[in-house]
């Protein structure tokens, strides 16, 4: 295997295993910084060994074993951790016997367990989400910043602050009790949805979608729904993700460039996934005031039920966005609502709402805002203004397929 192939193989395994690897190490050693450091050391070792020895039959297990050994070595060298190492009684070459059952120990995935742990109420909400996305969901700091609509510098500070708080406050990495789970659930749901969003619309790179990331988020949502079947917002989140992911095959053309909703071949939508999602929408909306994910799932269901863009129930979608905006007064929700109003009442009405959002700091560097505004200006025949908006969207777009699409739209305005 060449060094280039070896590096690609390590990176592919790391993308798949990183979350599980960190979660397992944090649970065993109770130290997030240590877990990150030995994970990086294990990856460096793999980059040296695998091109020579070949990829091991179980690469994830190889990385975990290597990282555990490196963690033990570090702890042994640090006399301050000697007593702690004795208590841990880490077995490097084989997993330790399963501990006695404890509250929440039936969580079937260690990453979900760590998601709940990082949702500790002692951490500010934005720090909890940032830390979990960065360290346990495997997103880069710029990807987390994009998901939460803040600058990369601000996000880096949040992550450092959260780690410092965990150390100084001695927040334990432990299984939350059943009574703690509901209070931490909203943060866990937001993390899973943010992972899915990065998979559905990648923040950077050569591809529009990262299907492996989206499908991993779906898997975690299914696990959570099996764990908490009576939680309506868990059902709502799973429904939303299913109804959106069902369109994955039609969202890109043969060249990988985006295909807008109006132009998608709806026969390529995954009808089995749509029906599964629709079946979850009703229980998510029943039994009290709906949550944010249930309302978004209802909007997605209306899109998936329509034969085409013109027969979509835009009045009902606008009404649902009104409900969603009351639940989540977010500029992104307001942007989507403006786009729906443009479909219901015409581009002039939608553009007026977008112009009202022009001063919103979180939309200033959000390329979908500028692309949406450019589209409405183009539909109104205001080509020069549309070209200016397309140029701004092009400056901000993170993936090459998005940039190619925007360059074509800009060219049509300039031509």
From TrEMBL:
Keywords: Sigma factor, Transcription, Transcription regulation. Residues 184-284 form the DUF6596 domain. InterPro entries: DUF6596, RNA_pol_sigma70_r2, RNA_pol_sigma70_r4_t2, RNA_pol_sigma_r2, RNA_pol_sigma_r3/r4-like, WH-like_DNA-bd_sf. GO terms for molecular function: DNA binding; sigma factor activity. Residues 14-79 form the RNA polymerase sigma-70 region domain. Residues 118-165 form the RNA polymerase sigma factor 70 region 4 type domain. Pfam families: DUF6596, Sigma70_r2, Sigma70_r4_2. GO terms for biological process: DNA-templated transcription initiation. Gene3D superfamilies: 1.10.1740.10, Winged helix-like DNA-binding domain superfamily/Winged helix DNA-binding domain. Belongs to the sigma-70 factor family. ECF subfamily. PANTHER family: BLL6612 PROTEIN (PTHR47756:SF2), BLL6612 PROTEIN-RELATED (PTHR47756). This is RNA polymerase sigma factor.
């Amino acid at each position: 295997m060449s060094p280039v192939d070896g590096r690609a193989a390590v990176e592919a395994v790391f993308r798949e295993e990183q979350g599980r690897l960190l979660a397992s190490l944090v649970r065993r050693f109770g130290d997030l910084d240590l877990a990150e450091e030995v994970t990086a050391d294990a990856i460096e070792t793999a980059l040296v060994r695998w091109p020579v020895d070949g990829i091991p039959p179980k690469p994830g297990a190889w990385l975990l074993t290597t990282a555990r050994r490196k963690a033990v070595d570090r702890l042994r060298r640090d006399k301050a951790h000697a007593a702690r190492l004795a208590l841990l009684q880490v077995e490097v070459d084989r997993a330790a016997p399963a501990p006695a059952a404890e509250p929440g120990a039936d969580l079937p995935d260690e990453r979900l367990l760590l998601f709940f742990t990082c949702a500790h109420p002692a951490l500010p909400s934005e720090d909890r989400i940032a830390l979990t996305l960065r360290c346990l969901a495997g997103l880069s700091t710029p990807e987390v910043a994009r998901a939460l609509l803040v600058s990369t510098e601000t996000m880096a500070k949040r992550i450092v602050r959260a780690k410092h708080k965990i150390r100084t406050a001695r927040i334990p990495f432990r299984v939350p009790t059943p009574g703690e789970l509901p209070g931490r659930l909203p943060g866990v749901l937001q993390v899973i949805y943010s992972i899915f969003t990065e998979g559905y619309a990648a923040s950077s790179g050569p591809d529009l979608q990262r299907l492996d990331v989206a499908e991993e988020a779906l898997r975690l949502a299914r696990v959570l729904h099996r764990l908490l079947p009576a939680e309506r917002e868990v059902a709502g989140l799973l429904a939303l993700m299913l109804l959106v992911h069902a369109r994955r095959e039609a969202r890109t053309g043969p060249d990988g460039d985006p295909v807008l909703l109006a132009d998608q071949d709806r026969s390529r939508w995954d009808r089995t996934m749509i029906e599964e999602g629709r079946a979850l929408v009703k229980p998510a909306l029943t039994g009290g005031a709906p949550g944010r994910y249930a309302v978004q799932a209802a909007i997605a269901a209306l899109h998936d039920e329509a034969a085409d863009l013109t027969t979509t129930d835009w009045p009902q979608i606008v009404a649902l966005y009104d409900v969603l905006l009351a639940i989540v007064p977010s500029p992104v929700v307001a942007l989507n609502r403006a786009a729906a109003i443009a479909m219901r009442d015409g581009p002039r009405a939608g553009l007026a709402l977008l112009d009202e959002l022009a001063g919103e700091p979180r939309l200033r560097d959000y390329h979908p805002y500028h692309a949406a505004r450019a589209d409405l200006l183009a539909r109104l025949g205001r080509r020069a203004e549309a070209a200016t908006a397309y140029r701004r969207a092009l400056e901000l777009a993170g993936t090459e397929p998005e940039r190619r699409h925007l360059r074509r739209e800009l060219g049509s305005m300039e031509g």
